[in-house]
Amino acid sequence: MYQYTEFDRAFVQARADQYRDQLSRWQAGQLPEDEFRPLRLQNGWYVQRYAPMLRVAVPYGELSSAQLRVLAKIARDYDQPQPELLRAAQAKQDLLGPVQSGERAISSKLSAGYGHFTTRQNVQYNWIPLDKSADVMDLLASVNMHGIQTSGNCIRNITSDELAGIAVDEIADPRPFGEILRQWSTLHPEFAFLPRKFKIAISGALEDRAATAWHDVGLYLIRNAEGELGFKVQVGGGMGRTPVIGSVIREFLPWHQVMNYIEAIVRVYNRYGRRDNIYKARIKILVKAEGQRYIDDVEAEYQQIMDHDGGPHTITQAELDRVTACFVPPALNCDHKSAQAKIANILRAAAEDDIEFGRWLKQNVRAHKNPDLRAVTLSFKRMGQAPGDATADQLAVAAELAEQFSAGEVRVTHDQNLLLPWVACDQLPELWRAARKAGFAKPNIRLLTDMIACPGGDFCSLANARSIPIAEAITERYQDMDELHDLGEIDLHISGCINSCGHHHSGHIGILGVDKDGLEWYQVSLGGADGSTLSGAAVPGKVVGPSFSASEVPEVIEAVLETYRQQRETGETFIATLRRVGMEPYKAAAKAARLPAAV
Amino acid sequence: MKLLTTNEHQEAGLQPTAVQLANDANPLSLPLTGVERIDLHFPKFTDGRAYSQAFLLRRRREFKGEIRATGDVLVDQLAQMQRSGFDVAVMRADQPLALAERVLANNPGFGVGRYQGDAVQVAPHFALTDAHGAG
């Protein structure tokens, strides 16, 4: 992991001190709410449906066990609303009524004391009172963490591949560049008030596991014909009400110029991006409207930065070396013979273990650049907990597992789980037992129930509809592991509104909450892709028809999956079948699944 | 950075050597001959266009005169303004000057240092520490 220097540490603490001063001026009435809001947002503090929400930055998803313990402490000690507030909020959620899923009524159950993993690899809390916010920032700063630029119209936390630095298909490790860009973007004076938020993702492997093409700027590490390292640069991707896949603006940019080039991209956007309409303010709209003219402007600005300004942000080899030295893999190895014997032992054991362990090896364990090691995903998708939610105790147990099995490091994944990146292959059986005991060993990674969902209408003030009861209804229906594995790998993504935090556009199956006359309705879309090998090139899904009532959604999902089972050829995935046969049979099935009362 | 009250700014008026540049105008085509002061405008403090204008005037045009921030100028954005090339700020009428001085000095960019280069200190932190051989 990146090792903070004295400067880095002092900077984070100074930012926490600055926030405390701003908070106290707001509390004293010296800083009006409208003027405090952008300041707290740029420290990760929102005010949501019932309470403030904190988004903690996890740069490129990497966390140490010490950081995870502090996140657990925050969940335990600070994610605690006053009982009256929780009661009042629950009463208001009760008014929305349950989501009827067949015979079962699924109600909102607001709970506190949790952290929540987001699709952009950050961690959120739902209940911390604002008057405790400065204390939480100090606590975070004690382990080099913060909420800098996790919200607001600025350059947000930079995300990457959960397998960065360990993937077998890696061209180059994106983490040093992620860190260098994190530093460059941190409190950039010129870019604190852009027209709208600005998200960067970096991928360094053949497979895109970071939904890179869906970002305002997508960076792909590549090598050119001469074998030199550089970036393919895409610009103008984004979700929201106008889903757009980024356009290639540079086929090859030498690695040391990436900051100078992004400075040009952002400066042109800052000057010409629309500010008159929040829905047209993202860079994707500017790129669409201006096309080649935008690209020409960026190239001209880049030339000026290089020729006139002297390319001040050219990355030196010394700086790349300094940062890269922080990402040296831990010295670990594995006794292959004993690993095979242990694995064989478990496979010979009780029949139930046999199946479960085998499935876990298949779904939750992945190959590693170092053949002695494996990457293991801990599943945070289970009955009774919202997707990506982790209690204080679960966070603390995950910290222990990281220490015991993964050189003290975890990654937050885009799919809202935790990944242990440094597991020795002879420790897999022990890790499986420990993870099973902790409830993290569900072998459902990349399967239907490993769904992405935003907090939705249970917490978020922007949401049009709830996500969590819908997620629960679907999770409950697909508890049979034989059935789940038979359905195979499927991306199911749920967003409670068009802001698309639940990435519904990129789901093979997407569910979007919409408001109709003050009631919760849902649009179902099919065929979206995040850009992974399974999903194919990034593309937004297509809506199957008019929106459905909440209680129709589980029926529609079941009908769509049943159609897949009827249509598939041997070994064919959901997304491949859909692409081969087209939307029509799925549309018909979804239509037939409408409940009579709602027709 | 020199801070002015709205009154001080208005009473002095606009000298012939001073120009006002709208925040959607192009600073790269502004004639600079004889110009000693350029007033840039923040219609709302959340509109960040004037930061890029100031940067381009300072770095690209190498304008050495005064760049003055006007409009919705609040204490919590002064550090960004100074780093982008402004050297004078006209505080919105309700903004206390003493507070502005304190907030500016305590900004992480001034109290501790800055990661990225800007209009004032061109080299980023890593380039400065590279030269001194320290991390």
Helices and strands, with pairings:
The complex is a heterodimer of chains A (599) and B (135).
Chain A: H1 6-27, H2 33-41, E1 45-47, E2 52-56, E3 62-64, H3 65-77, H4 83-95, E4 99-101, E5 104-106, E6 114-117, E7 123-125, H5 133-141, E8 159-160, H6 175-185, E9 200-203, E10 217-223, E11 229-235, E12 247-254, H7 258-272, H8 283-290, H9 292-307, H10 317-324, H11 336-348, H12 351-363, E13 365-366, E14 373-378, E15 389-391, H13 392-405, E16 409-412, E17 418-424, H14 428-438, E18 452-453, H15 468-477, H16 481-487, E19 492-495, E20 509-516, E21 519-526, E22 542-543, E23 548-549, H17 553-567, H18 574-581, H19 584-592
Parallel strand pairs in A: 8-9, 9-10, 18-19, 19-20
Antiparallel strand pairs in A: 1-2, 2-7, 3-16, 4-5, 6-7, 6-15, 10-11, 11-12, 13-14, 14-17, 16-17, 20-21, 21-22, 21-23
Helix pairs in contact in A: 1-2, 1-5, 3-13, 7-9, 13-14, 17-18, 17-19
Chain B: E1 2-4, H1 6-12, E2 18-21, E3 37-42, H2 49-60, E4 66-71, H3 78-84, E5 88-90, H4 97-106, H5 108-111, H6 125-132
